[in-house]
Amino acid sequence: MLANIALSVLDEHFARAWAASGTSYRRFVARRKGSATYRIVRYADDFVVLVSGSKRHAEDLREVVAGLLAPMGLRLSAAKTRVCHIDEGFDFLGFRIQRKRKRGTDKRVVYTYPSKKALASIVGRVRALTRRSSHPTLAALLRQLNLVLRGWCVYFRHGVSKATFHYLDDYAWHRVVRWIRKRHNKTKWAVLMRRYLPGWRPTEDEVTLFQPQTVTVSRYRYRAANIPTPWAVITPEPAK
Fold first, then answer.
1. pLDDT for position 143
2. Distance between CA atoms of 140 and 207, rounded to whole angstroms?
3. I want to staple 115 with a disulfide (CB 3.0 to 4.6 A). Which of 21, 91, 136, 217 is the partner?
């Protein structure tokens, strides 16, 4: 809440700049003449400024943003702030956003998929939950693990996540099976399969390991300017 209050100054500034740029045709003409257009995407204290222009334009905007934050006693994080090209890609809110060539074509499109850091985080969480001493029973383990897996997959289903979900499914399955074998190290594998892996999925007391690979991936569709914003009523100030 505090971040939204403090950083509304950024929203207002960029909304005014966009309104002042006029129509889409005027913005197109301005870009052809060497100017830049830009929009901000912000969630709490994380934000990205998207620039249609040169690297110099982007670097200048970084200084503008720093100037807007300075009167409030805030500054940009040197470690987390950088200027990059969309072909290089960047991480935002756990997603990797990058333009690549579409497989089988010469067309270049922007992809969003789980970042390496986000994947490492969920893998680490699964590893921590599947330690032998963490849970008294398999059912208790599966309940905890299912909550974590389901929540992560629901968040990342709006992207190119199918391959990542398959990897996570395979990793979680092997970790749980390893947990079962260590917990019952004197029991034959055939007995463990019959008792805990009906249908090849770890199960106990009607609790079955969640399958990330079954989550339907639903990409967000481009809706142009049809998405309302709280700053839609802002109009540019008259020239003095």
1. 94
2. 9
3. 91
Report residue 50 as tokens. Answer: 């998207």
Q: What is the C-alpha to C-alpha distance for residues 64 and 38, in angstroms, rounded to an integer?
A: 12
| Chain CA centroid to CA 42, Å | 13
Can you tell me the distance from the alpha carbon of 13 to that of 65, in angstroms, rounded to the nearest whole number? Answer: 9
Sign of CA dihedral 63, 68, 70, 71: positive
Q: Which two tokens stand for residue 127?
A: 């590893």
Query: Which residue type occupies 1?
Result: M
pTM over 0.70: yes
pLDDT digits 0-9 by tens, 128-177: 999 877 788 999 999 999 999 999 999 999 889 999 999 999 999 999 99
**Tokens of residue 24, six digits:** 């889409």
Please write down the HEC assignment for all residues of the chain.
CHHHHHCHHHHHHHHHHHHHCCCHHHHHHHHHCCCCEEEEEEECCEEEEEEECCHHHHHHHHHHHHHHHHHHCCCCCCCCCCCCCCCCCEEECCEEEEEEECCCCCCEEEEEEECHHHHHHHHHHHHHHCCCCCCCCHHHHHHHHHHHHHHHHHHHCCCCCHHHHHHHHHHHHHHHHHHHHHHCCCCCHHHHHHHHCHHHCCEECCEECCCHHHCCCCCCCCCCCCCCCCCCCCCCCCCC
51 bridge partner residues: 38
Residue with tokens 């960047």: 90
Taking the C-alpha atoms of residue 162 and residue 150, their distance in angstroms, rounded to an integer, is 14
